[in-house]
Amino acid sequence: MIFVDEKNKALKITAIAYNTFRESVRDRVLYNLVLFVALIVAAASVIGRIAVGQEAKIIIDVGLSATSVFGLLIAIFIGIGLVSKEIEKRTVAVILSKPVRRSQFILGKYFGLCLTLLVNTTAMAAAVALALIFAKGGFDAAQLALWPAAYLIFLELAVMTAVALLFSCFSTPALSALFTLLIFLIGRWSPDLKLFAETADSAATRIVSRALYHLLPNLASFNFINEAAYGESVPARLLAGNTVYAICYVAALLAVAVLIFDRRNFK
Amino acid sequence: MSVIEVENLTQDYLTGFWRKRSVRALDSLSLQIASGEVFGLLGPNGAGKTTTFKILLGLIRPTTGSAWILGSAIDDVAMRRRIGYLPEQPYFYDYLTAREFLLYCGALCDLPKTEAAERADKLLHQVGLADSADKQLRKFSKGMLQRVGLAQALIHDPEVLFLDEPMSGLDPLGRREVRDFVVGLRAQGKTIFFSSHILADVEAMCDRVAILNKGRLIESGKLSEILKAHSNELEVVVSGVTEPALAEIRSLALSISASPDNARIRLKDDRDLARMLELTHAAGGRIVSVNPVRESLEDLFVREVKGS
Ligand SMILES: Nc1ncnc2c1ncn2[C@@H]1O[C@H](COP(=O)(O)OP(=O)(O)O)[C@@H](O)[C@H]1O
Ligand SMILES: [Mg+2]
Questions:
Q1: Which member of A97, A215, A260, B221 has the greatest number of CB atoms within 10 A?
Q2: What lines the ligand 1 site, CB under 6 Å?
Q3: 3-state DSSP call for residue A46?
Q4: pLDDT digit string (tens) for B130-140?
Q5: Which atom of ligand 1 is nearest to the CA of B45?
Q6: Which CATH number applies to B232-292: 3.40.47.10, 3.30.70.260, 3.90.420.10, 3.40.190.10?
């Protein structure tokens, strides 16, 4: 039997990621796009009539907000099952009895869902772009603001996927969903948390909220939807800074996930 | 040198939510399995068979003890390229077709695409699933999934196979096919370690067996030796012998089961045989058969399990 080089670990991660992607496609996850397009078309046609001159702003606002919410639902509800479902259905035993490292399994599952989210987010942003073209009767500067904002949404989803996957490694789906959602909400309001950390009366509260502020993902800066609706493009610095932040945060979460998963016994 | 070497494996499971209780599923199990052997791990439900497999495949870390496969420690990932595993009651991704699943497994075992495709076709054919190759696994019956399980365990042509209850959930014909399949694998020189609680299957396939109960090894060795060691008994079947004579025969026998047509008489050994035949003739009876009782694995099993 001829084998490819075992050292080529990326191949296995790709195979696992592709299979994860294939699962979500066959589970009709991408069908949410249909709903999304219907929403955009309805928004464009209704609001275009009652708020003349505001079409681009409203289409981008509604479109990107929906992109973010739909994506978040996918990231959380698929993410929390990424690992726990394989454990529960015992497919994990089939995979890990093959020459596959546990870290490769975790990374494959993660990138698989990221791929789903990338396709989903891109398709939604494209739908918003099309709606803009129809509303404006051609290309418009607002298009330029749309894509970087969509990219930030994807980055945020990538962070949330890692959060959900981490919980998926040791918790039940219901608890995982709850915690992931909680982390998302706190992350979105992280500036308030910071303010609270600075102004709280008791020292203990200050310490705890400051620790939370640093530990939980800082998601506020990923939300550029409002600005994009006013035609403002994401500054390059923010784009780069958020990219680096997301990569580091995801890497840390995945490292913890691997650490936990590595210790698990599969009953 | 042994292909599979198990040394003092002990596994405790923690159960209970509040009060953690420790359950010993495996108690100092030691085994050696040589190259090319078909080795059966026998035991009733809950004996610790699946636990043993999971430890060997690296899915559970044992509480204490160690094991080696093909000279490598069991947590050596590269070694797993040379072994295949069929889990108990396998369940696979139900959104994949049988072929897609096998290709996926091939990729995980470092097979190049063309090689994996060839192997998948060949194996699907061998396990009798060629016609269902492109059906989603959600439409597969239990028996078909078991066959897919065999195919995925073999996709990378491993030297050592771990089969956890490979015949459970199969009808008699399916069992027969799996048995023949395993015999074919043995002919190719594979080492096969499998578990079962169905003794007829084991008798037909194994070189050696180990009997496990409540996590402890009760007995191990060649099947013929384990069985022979326990029996010189004879079973005599007679007909036309009625009660007064039967009472006398009863005093010689280990046991008698009488029916209107005939009586089955168990003798401890052949010392009382002549006297028994005499009594039968004197009573006007007829000898139907005299056979050595080859203790069935069932008998052994029941006795060993009760005794421990
Ligand atoms: N995940 C687990 N948690 C607690 N106890 C377990 C677990 N898995 C198995 N056991 C116990 O360990 C023993 C051996 O189980 P197992 O290895 O599955 O036996 P077998 O495969 O021979 O039927 C049984 O008593 C079973 O109840
Ligand atoms: Mg079992």
A1: A97
A2: A 267; B 13, 15, 23, 25, 43, 45-51
A3: helix
A4: 999 999 999 99
A5: 23
A6: 3.30.70.260
